[in-house]
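Appendix B. Raw example, untouched.
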Amino acid sequence: MRKLTILALVVTLCSCLGPQKPADQHPVAEDTLQREKEFSDSLLSEVFASLTEITDNLNTIKIRENLITTSYNSGEIQVEPTAVIRADIAAIDELLAENRRALDRLRHNADQLKKANRQVESLERLLSAFADQIAAKDHEINTLKEELRIKTEQVETLASGLEEEARLRGELETELESTTGMLNTAYYIVGSAKELKRKGITGKSGFIGRTTVVNDNHELDDFTAIDLRTFDELILGRKNVEVVTSHPEGSYVFVMGERGVYQSLVITDKARFWATSKILVVSYK
């Protein structure tokens, strides 16, 4: 349909521009008419090429504009697609520049036809219509550029916010992991009564029937850190074993071996066992 419209216009121009030869035309005048016809044909060829170029460019611009509009309306413009849209806008800019150059050529051709006393009203009306279209597209592309600038700023702000959110989330997760690790960290030590006393870990309490207790100011350097969530059993392999720290009865059991040897201490109720103390001190004689 587009090419048929342009072809119809060119046919109209031909009928207006093409010189007619009278029946009794002199040979010299015939040569002049032939040159004028060749001149008109050349101009018409240029006009047709320029019209085709402008129309094709306008169609391409429309396609690219539709792609950009679709991206905007989807509401899913991200950092990478904005670069694609920017490339589309740059391509539209170049197409508009090509159309302006083609329009200048058409105006030049119209001026030449005027000087040759040809009727160019139809061509001038078409030039005016194309000039209006190009001006309208210039306005549209400037609007798209401004929309892209705003969208880009929004995307960059959103991306920055997401990065900051991810950073804060990472810090919180690290802090939570650290806190969770601390909350689930317990310490144990197994040693002879003399060794524990020498290290200041245990002492005696009371005057009659003095009992072994854990000192409040003891250091943890000699203790072994454990994750109480996975720690179930403490290997002993000792006789005369005593749990010095306070842990509820029924939250643990001893596994006895031969000849009165305590093979291990098995925690049967972790929540109750560690509820009163995160320190486990076992002494033996």
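End of appendix B.
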